[in-house]
Amino acid sequence: MLKKRIIPKFLLCDGRLVKYRQFFSDERQAGNPVSTAKVYNDYGVDEFIVLDIIPSEDSKAKVRDIIKTMSEEIFMPFTVGGGVSSLDDVNALLRAGADKVSVNSQAVRDPSFVADAARSFGDQCMSVSIDYKEISPGVPRVHINGGREKTNHNPVDWALRMQDANCGEILLTSIDRDGMMSGYDSDMVARLDEQLDIPLVVSGGCGGLQHCIDAFAAGASAVAISSLFLFTDHSPIKMRSHLVSNGINVRASKTSRN
Amino acid sequence: MLCALGLRLDKNRVPAENRWMTSVAIIDYGRGNVRSVFNALDYIGVAATITDDPAVIDDASHILLPGVGACGDAVAALNSRGLPEILHRQVFEKGKPFLGVCVGMQVLAAKSFEHGTHDGLGWLDAEVHRLDPGPDGLKIPHMGWNSLTPSRAHPVFDGIKTEDLVFYFVHSFAVTPSDPDKVLTTSDYGKPFVSALAWDNVITTQFHPEKSQDSGLEVLTNFARWVP
Q1: Taking CA atoms, what residue in B is nearest to A73?
Q2: Mean pLDDT across the stretch A79-104?
């Protein structure tokens, strides 16, 4: 049976690994993405997500170089995004070694973009990234442009629209929970999972192994993790054995069986 | 610690002096991330070329047909480059080992029902149907790691322990052959689907060995060594 996925999420700023809280506060440098990816590769994570958070033409070229280098030695799927706004951008990332391309702001700005890209490159290549925060209690709204710009979309409705546009996967990130390590928004996962027919990757808030169990129980296909791996002594190996002992079907890496 | 991990990472690399006399033609039909297949073969020390040139394909000892995207679209792309006849000659007349990956497996079927009805290459009496989400409403695409249940041994899976037969999949359609003897492995997604087919000098996988870490590299290594 299909296994639940554990996916380190790398945020890049000018080609370096960084991590914030709630997208903007408490910037921390987290090192070189390629060497960090190699360590996680050996721990047997299931995929990588790499997002350029302040995209410019320069930084996008750096990201392509990083993906090219990673994909020469790391043989697992890469989802890459940040500033993807044209079919040429999608194609350039796929050619650099990305397996899936993550689209966020452009999906809102041009409602036909995701459908066009899915038609050109295949549904399975298109991952739509949805960042949302509560603008008042119980009122979540999708934000674009790295969380700076509010839209009027409700994240659940928006995800379903993107599913109709033939995207292959949703990456759902809670801005409020980003970097806070207080747990995923499992309620939102459950609400979305009920209606969504494509895989859902949940992101934002993982601070412990129980948070992953909760997210999977709520229906997530995969958990995206950054702070927990970057700043604590939790490793993918430890996480995996904990999840297995809690009855969750994850891949047993060779490393973890040694 | 980093050093130790680095060494492990290199364990699949083959020293230059030990490289075998294999050359793999990775068929380029303008679709999919063919670079990752090249990278994986290069990593394990197998000479490979991404090509649609009949002369280069003719020089190769092994043929690999990668694929991402829709089946009908892939067949059209192969046809527009005149590749089906070239591949047929290499595989059926010259008997070269052939590996078809994902859509490179699906195009061999006689008929596909992805986005309408399309004729495949017809190397195999088989149909390509959409996966059934079933009563549990399983997510489609079937995306992620899943295990294989082999129905028999095959040189391409040599030396891989049963518990390591876990590979990366990303697909919404799967091949159903009329001849059950050609089924090499099945995998379970709500119900069993065919995850690898093999007959004579042909093996096809619905999963992506080039994206399946160590187990995938072992499959590619075995394929490069395979002399059917």
Answers
A1: B43
A2: 95
Is B17 one of the catalytic residues?
A: no
Q: Is B115 a catalytic site residue?
A: no
Q: Which CATH superfamily is domain A5-253 in?
A: Aldolase class I (3.20.20.70)
Helix (H) or strand (E) holding A30: strand A25-31
Closest by CA position to B15, among listed B36, B41, B44: B44
Q: What is the CATH number of domain B20-225?
A: 3.40.50.880
pLDDT for B67 equals 82
A258 contacts chain B (CB < 8 A) = no
> Phi, psi (5° rounding) for residue B88?
-60, -45
Q: pLDDT confidence of A253, banded at 50, 70, 90?
A: low
Its sign, for the CA torsion B209, B210, B212, B216, is positive
CB contacts, 8 Å: B72 with chain A: none
The structural domains of chain B, with segments of one domain joined by +, span 20-225
pTM above 0.80, yes or no: yes
pLDDT of residue B14: 52
Is B171 a residue of the active site? no
Q: In terms of Cα–Cα distance, which of A9, A34, A2, A1 is closest to A223?
A: A9
- Cβ pair A177, A184 in contact under 8 A: yes
Q: Which residues of B touch A119 (CB under 8 A)?
A: none
Q: Are B191 and B218 in contact (CB under 8 A)?
A: no
Q: Name residues 172-201 of chain B within 8 A of A (Cβ).
A: 172, 188-189
Sign of CA dihedral A38, A24, A210, A233: positive
* Sequence-separated (6 or more) residues with CB below 8 Å from residue B137: A197
Taking only the tens place, the pLDDT of each residue in B185-200 is 999 999 999 999 999 9
d(CA A30, CA B96): 48
Least confident of A130-139, B22-31, B143-152: B22-31
Are the beta carbons of B67 and B107 closer than 8 angstroms?
Answer: yes
Average pLDDT over residues A9-18: 95
- What's the mean pLDDT in A140-152? 97
